[in-house]
Amino acid sequence: QVYLQESGGGSTQAGGSLRLSCTGPGHAMIRCEIEWYRQATGNEREWVASIGPLGDTEYADSVLGRFTISKDKSEDTVYLQMNALKPADAATYLCKTSKDCPWEYWGQGTEVTVSS
Question: How far apart are CA 82 and CA 101, in angstroms?
């Protein structure tokens, strides 16, 4: 089974920054919308941000202005730059291809911890 691979999680204090990466097969990363989700313990999975094949982006209200989603030039990696982190941002972050993608790929997640 093919997975996407997340990296970049870790621990930081409130106000800090982290950059997450999501890498996967080129055919999916180039042609599909890529989404970031997060799930904190005891909470439902929450959509965070998306980037389309043409670079169009969308954000959840809770992260708008603090998080930036982008692709690298090779387009096989999607980044999530997270600034001004809050304890409420602590979660396991996962990337996936969107439901419109011919290939349904999920990552296994990377953990983000934010201390107050």
Answer: 25
Residues 98-103: contacts with CB within 8 Å, 24+ apart?
98/32, 98/33, 98/34, 98/35, 98/50, 100/32, 100/33, 101/28, 101/31, 101/32, 101/33, 102/31, 102/32, 103/2, 103/25, 103/27, 103/28, 103/32
Alpha-carbon distance 92 to 76, whole Å? 21
**Which residue type does 75 have?**
E
**Each residue of 32-84: pLDDT tens digit?**
999 999 999 999 999 999 999 999 999 999 999 999 999 987 878 999 999 99
Using CA atoms, how far apart are residues 2 and 53, in angstroms rounded to an integer? 20
| Cα dihedral: 90, 96, 77, 83 (round 10) | -20
CB 43 within 8 A of CB 99: no
Pairwise CA distance, residues 9 & 89, whole Å: 12
